[in-house]
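Blinded run. Sample ID left blank on purpose so nobody reads anything into the name before looking at the predicted structure. Input follows.
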Amino acid sequence: MASEHAETCAVLSEEIRRRYGADYEVTTRHGADEAVSTLVAYRDGGAEVALVVSGYGEHDRDGLEVLARARRLHPAAMRAVAVGWGDFGRAREVFDALATGEIHQYLVRPEHRPDEEFHRSVTELLEDWTLGSETGFEAVRVIGDPKTSRSHELRDSFARNHIPIGFHDVRSDTGRRMLDSLGLDDPELPVVVVRFTAEPTVLANPTDLEIADAFGLMEPLPADAHFDVAIIGAGPAGLAAAVYAASEGLDTLVIEAEAVGGQAGTSSLIRNYPGFPRGVSGHRLTYSAFQQAWSFGATFQFMRKVTGLRGDGADRVIEMSDGSSVRAAAVVIATGSSYRRLDVPELEALIGNGVFYGAAVSEAPAMVGKAVFVVGGGNSAGQAAVHLAKYADRVTLLVRGGDLAASMSEYLIRELDASPNISIRFDVEVVGGGGPDGLDRLVVRDRTTGDDEAVAADALFLLIGSRPHTGWLEGSVARDEWGFVCTGQDLSEERSDRPPLPLETSMPGVFAVGDVRRGSVKRVASAVGEGAIAVQYLHRYLEEMRRVAVGSS
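Blinded prediction complete.
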């Protein structure tokens, strides 16, 4: 904590030390010079700084500058300004610092005890730091080669599912000792140890399904299981549909092939989602929605891929990758989309070893001091670049188009422009690269001149385009030429039974929401809205089916 103002310094020091002093070393410095000198000493000594709080107001003119210096000295540390209640004259400066990434949050200086609103904000900052630093309790321990794609997949999947993980390099002394303690001589890697069960479960190079079963949370569905609605996909749209369906009394099943949150779950900070003026990580937002749907009674099946969908009378039958099937009166397709592959063989061979698809938040702390490239021009790419810039020495955003205005939110463009270690190159594409032991170079082509340039690179994050997950719908639901699901008025052929409801597909009782739907708006709030609205049309469909059943009896 730092402040020129004696009262502010005393209040912040007392509040933070009293609540957090048992777990953190709390340091108070009077003035900007003392604060920066201490931050330099911590950096030189290798100390990890979790949070820097600086006063800002009439007596703390240098408060924002202290945090700007902290950003450069300790990029992984959380940064917050403490302002006095009613000091509205400086609000614009604080909001600008928030928009450009100079600070993570603003705190209103405590004026009474206990001030739980103040401490809630501090706790959230410390939680975000803990999740990003992979410190603390290891519910799951993974021992493997950090350069393999499977190790990367597991780390990313556990992190996105909010599971505390410890990853240990098999070549390290610690990793070898762990294998010895498990009685494993030359196991197939990676080894996954589930440590929270009564007896630790040890799995050698397990499949996703084996891991899900080992957790014991997702019991296999009974052969005669029948649900009011089955939601396929646990991204923002699917989770919103699950919350509303389950809360309104519908027997709800959610099937997810990978992790909670979809692409949104990998976003380090979403600042344009309504109700979160300071921003919210995609991970926190989507995991909270999962917990909410679960608390309302929704059933979740993770690590199960859907392979087919067909109608059987009034039921919709969902075929799954483990050979099982489940019946539901209605279905919501919310499988989203994934990033397009780069189609450069030498780079595809390095996935997990310097090349990553998606934001891969779990990889960011390993980027300290490195030269990182991000490919893409949308919000996800911008958010990834900003997050990676907290750790990397320099981040270069590579964009195929000539500007960002058409594909990226203005607040992110401002934040990119304000980040001193982020540069942007337009009208370029990656056409090659490689390295003997991992990525060490890229070949970047100027799309205007056709010239190729070799550049040194330590990591490449790809967030380009979108490809819907709809191959399993072949022959059952109408899709457009790119594979996106057609709904409502976008259906080219009229159905024989009745006009489709909004968000309803060519198969009655099957709805599509979020990024998987043709014409959708690629924003988290829009996906959530579609998921919620779909449930209202779903009720209408189910009521219609009940009337038909009564009339035929």
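Unblinding after everyone has recorded impressions. The radius of gyration is 25 Å.
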